[in-house]
Write a structure and sequence with these properties.
With 113 residues, the protein is of the alpha/beta class. Helices cover 41% and strands 21% of the residues.
């Protein structure tokens, strides 16, 4: 069964997320915050990949990788569903191995309490 991922859609939601807490690592910067009026069983997460990272094919590959990692994290209950997340990807996501990226992101999501 696939988990349900919702993304942020409004400009004010993105701006409020950028004022929240953040954690950075080699692969991404993760902003997280509790938002009011949020459903408790659906994960609100958005992925941002800047144009500097590469062309559209590279950016979409990064987003597919991140989406797949988040589905696995939800299945393993590594994520807190009462938070909303914003992941800003870095260039190293494109070149490094999938398993390394997954392990590093899982560690960072365990830090978030």
């Amino acid at each position: 069964m696939k988990s349900k991922l919702n993304s942020l859609s409004k400009n004010f939601e993105f701006k409020s997320m950028l004022k929240g807490k953040k954690i950075s690592n080699k692969y991404s910067t993760i902003f997280f915050k509790k938002l009011p009026n949020k459903e408790k069983d659906i994960l609100n997460i958005s992925f941002v990949v800047k144009k500097k990272v590469g062309n559209s094919v590279a950016r979409n590959k990064i987003k597919r990788r991140l989406r797949n990692i988040m589905h696995e994290a939800v299945k393993k209950n590594n994520l807190k569903l009462y938070y909303c997340y914003l992941l800003i990807a870095k260039r190293s996501l494109l070149t490094d191995k999938y398993i390394d990226i997954k392990n590093e992101l899982f560690k960072k999501f365990l830090v978030i309490r």
